[in-house]
UniProtKB/TrEMBL annotation:
Region (Disordered): 111-164
Ranges of compositional bias, category Acidic residues: 155-164
Highest taxon in the source lineage: Eukaryota
Organism listed in the record: Sphaerobolus stellatus (strain SS14)
Protein name: Uncharacterized protein
Basic and acidic residues: compositionally biased ranges: 127-144
Length: 164
């Protein structure tokens, strides 16, 4: 029995090592998908800037009185929508894979964040706008905090003057 207990223990150790190796490979895949999502976002931002430039050029030409065929106008306008739809589809697929990996390796307590995608109508640049808004809110909160501190100091001074 002593020999069979050693074999069982060795098999358990090998199983643990295999599970850890698999978790490591899955975690690497998660980070690769994260990099892929960032690269996709940069590409889409570039494509959207190009599409927006075409839309602005089209509007500029129309304002100058240049006759633009309807099919060209529709194609230019539809291009932007197609870029956003494609981006949303790809990002949903990537985030679904990332979340499956996260759930599969949850037993390792890997601290992988859950990946989410915003509203489908939001473009990739919305994250930049949100971060700018967050910074503005934080700055206004900091200013409000300074005002509060000043008020607190003033009330303490008033209390000291009334105690005399």
């Amino acid at each position: 029995m002593d020999g069979s207990a050693k074999i069982v223990e060795a098999v358990r150790d090998l199983t643990k090592l295999e599970r850890r190796r698999m978790a490591g490979l899955l975690e690497k895949s998660w980070y690769d998908l994260d990099i892929c999502a960032l690269n996709l976002e940069q590409t889409v931002d570039r494509d959207l800037m190009e599409a927006d430039g075409k839309v602005l050029t089209l509007l500029d030409m129309k304002s100058r009185g240049v006759e633009i065929p309807a099919d060209v106008e529709k194609r230019v306008m539809a291009n932007r929508g197609s870029i956003v739809a494609s981006y949303t589809t790809h990002m949903e697929h990537i985030f679904t894979r990332m979340n499956l990996i996260r759930k599969r390796t949850a037993w390792t307590k890997n601290d992988l964040p859950e990946s989410t995608i915003g509203e489908p109508e939001e473009g990739p640049s919305s994250r930049v706008e949100e971060s700018g808004n967050k910074r503005k809110v934080e700055e206004s909160e900091n200013r409000a905090g300074v005002r509060k501190k000043r008020r607190v100091v003033e009330t303490e001074e008033e209390e000291d003057s009334t105690m005399r």
